[in-house]
Design brief:
This protein is of the alpha+beta class. The protein has one domain: Orthogonal Bundle (Arc Repressor Mutant, subunit A). Helix content is 50%, strand content 15%. It has 4 helices and 2 strands, in the order αααββα. Strands 1-2 form a two-stranded antiparallel sheet. Strand 1 and strand 2 form a beta hairpin. The chain is globular, with a radius of gyration of 16 Å. The chain starts with a helix and ends in a 10-residue tail after the last helix.
């Protein structure tokens, strides 16, 4: 029972760390992906595009992984990891809304 609780705590901590370290570009990309259960990809138009940077960071964080295939010759395919599925769900449920201090 102790090991199960410990594993749950580690998973929760990993999820919180992944969520709290997302950049604006990563959040935008996660919102653009139509479904967490399908392979997806976009045409790569440049190495330094926001899409390329967000994809690289999501790969580094273990939120997505290369699907070992492509949608077309210029569209590498990606899928979500187990961690990524949870992060995707949390982002797409809706984030807490804040007001600007000057409003």
């Amino acid at each position: 029972m102790h090991r199960l609780r410990e594993q749950s705590f580690v998973n929760d901590a990993r999820i919180q760390l992944a969520l709290s370290s997302l950049s604006a570009e990563e959040v935008i990309l996660l919102r653009k992906i139509p479904s967490q259960s399908h392979v997806w990809g976009e045409k790569v138009t440049g190495v330094a595009s926001w899409y390329a940077m967000a994809t690289a960071r999501l790969l580094d964080k273990g939120i997505i992984k290369f699907a070992m295939g492509e949608i077309s010759s210029d569209q590498p395919a990606f899928i979500f990891t187990e961690l990524g599925q949870i992060v995707y769900q949390r982002i797409n449920k809706g984030l807490q809304q804040f007001k600007r201090p000057d409003e």
